[in-house]
Amino acid sequence: MKRFIQNIQNIWKVEELRKRIILTLGLILVYRIGSFVIIPGVNYEALTTKSSDQNLLETLLSVFSGGGFTHASIMALGIMPYISASIIMQLLGMAVPAVQKMQNEGESGRKQINNYTRILTIVICALQAPSYLSLYVDQKQAMPDFNALGISETFWWTQTILVLISGSMFAVWLGERITEKGIGNGVSLLITVGILSRLPGAFFAEFGKSVEAGNLIRLVLEVVFFMLIILVTILIVQGVRRIPLNTAKRIAGARAAEDINGARNYLPIKVNASGVMPIIFAQAIMTIPMMIYSSASGGKGEGGFLQQTLGDPYGFSYNLLLCTLIIVFTYFYTAIMINPSKIADDLKKSGGFVPGVRPGEETAEHIDSVVSRITFPGSLFLALIAVLPAVAKLAGVNDGFAMFFGGTSILIMVGVVLDTLQQIETYQLNRNMDSLMDGTRVRGRRGANEFSGM
Fold first, then answer.
1. Rounded CA gap, 174 and 329, in Å?
2. pTM
3. What is the pLDDT of residue 173?
4. Residue 68 in contact with residue 76, Cβ under 8 Å?
5. The architecture CATH gives domain 201-454
6. For 335-392, what is each residue's pLDDT tens digit?
7. Model confidence over 41-96: pLDDT tens digits?
8. SS in 3 state form for the chain?
């Protein structure tokens, strides 16, 4: 505890870091307040009385929006349209030469891609807002009484769609300001805060359930199991396969290049290079058919193969298909993130080589084989994480608390927290202060002997 207090004091001593943290917390507070501002005219009581009747899609969107989706707030769409637009731009970068050219133009290309991403976000919001109002708010019987309010139905729909688009773009603006002038990745932090905001309520609901059943030991075991899952997740997320490299020379400061033949560097390949994206892709694919089916049937469709397979997120068929999609998307997204040919070319230009492997094509094949081998256990881990909520549900954990035992929730929380801690530690080290973790360092920040060609 003493070391923790000392670390907080060290952080507070850095003026720039202190200002960035205060600004970040202030913008997050604004985002949280916006998540509780209800859309004008919506019957909030009707939403709360039927809040227990949620399907998987509603639950997931509510988690990522910090409850704004189920509250019918002005930020009900949250940050997810921007995430969807970013994913689409990444995929276009693989297939469209014009987008590839922008990606290779450095800072100017990045600004152009960001502008196109924002425009695409507005388009996605304009498509999602009417669907949200008709498929969620209207089905909850929370639409306003236009006659009683004395307003035109067309006017209300128009202004509400504009409000939802503005709320989502305001959330994007908050995320960008946090990234630019705060600490950590702003968009990721907003998603994480939305997820964490539901954790206390879910835990106290589970606590009340355990007290009512007179079985607190079970609650203790659940918490211990939850902590073990977090520990294993950290180990896997930070796990790196280091490929040994030899470099021909190194330049230190203004000194002349010194021959250091045989000096050992490393090329770090992450076990989970794809991050949380395969789970997001897989769950999106799983929810789209149900969303279309629900829309076509007016939310009253029952039975049938589609309902039995995809309607139960805790069923065997659903989780088997989910695991299969996650493994496929893990290989797909890893192929996007890691380009062995480019890495081999960068190594060749910098005078580096893998011992025992010829530079060029053979090096690319060697790196590709290593990536393929470590991607398989990484994909299995993601698949296991994705089905853990179903396992927890079968063990008797309530739905809300079971969501935190795996899936995107725990991966996003762990990844964002680690990334934020790394940035805080970097600010401290740049000012010749002690590390955030005295005697240790947050894994993931590359050491001086690791190749940075990726």
1. 30
2. 0.76
3. 93
4. yes
5. Orthogonal Bundle (1.10)
6. 877 888 888 888 888 778 888 888 888 888 888 888 888 888 888 888 888 888 888 8
7. 888 777 776 554 455 556 666 766 667 777 788 888 888 888 888 878 877 877 78
8. CHHHHHHHHHHHHCHHHHHHHHHHHHHHHHHHHHCCCECCCCCHHHHHHCCCCCCHHHHHHHHHCCCHHHHCECCCCCCHHHHHHHHHHHHHHHHCHHHHHHHCCCHHHHHHHHHHHHHHHHHHHHHHHHHHHHHHHCCCCCCCCHHHHCCCHHHHHHHHHHHHHHHHHHHHHHHHHHHHHCCCCHHHHHHHHHHHCCHHHHHHHHHHHHHHHCCHHHHHHHHHHHHHHHHHHHHHHCCEEEEEEEEEEECCCCCCCEEEEEEEEEEEEECCCCCCHHHHHHHHHHHHHHHHHHHHCCCCCCCHHHHHHHCCCCCHHHHHHHHHHHHHHHHHHHHHHCCHHHHHHHHHHHCEECCCCCCCHHHHHHHHHHHHHHHHHHHHHHHHHHHHHHHHHHCCCCHHHHHHHCHHHHHHHHHHHHHHHHHHHHHHHHCCCCCCCCCCCCCCCCCCCECCCC
- If we measure between CA atoms, which residue out of 166, 148, 198, 205 comes closest to residue 32? 198
C-alpha span between 61 and 69 (Å, rounded): 6
Mean pLDDT of the chain: 78
Q: What are the structure tokens assigned to 417, written together?
A: 């927290």
* 451 phi and psi angles, rounded to 5 deg: -65, 135
Q: Do domains 12-197 and 201-454 have the same CATH topology?
A: yes
pLDDT digit string (tens) for 390-404?
Answer: 888 888 888 778 878
9 against 262, higher pLDDT:
9
Highest mean pLDDT among 57-61, 403-407, 414-418, 446-450: 414-418
| pLDDT for the residue numbered 387 | 85
| Contact call for residues 76 and 69 (beta carbons, < 8 A) | yes
What CATH class is the domain 12-197?
mainly alpha
CA 421 – CA 428 distance, rounded (Å): 11
> What's the pLDDT at 111?
87
Locate the domains of the chain by residue range.
12-197, 201-454
Report the DSSP beta bridge partners of residue 242. 268
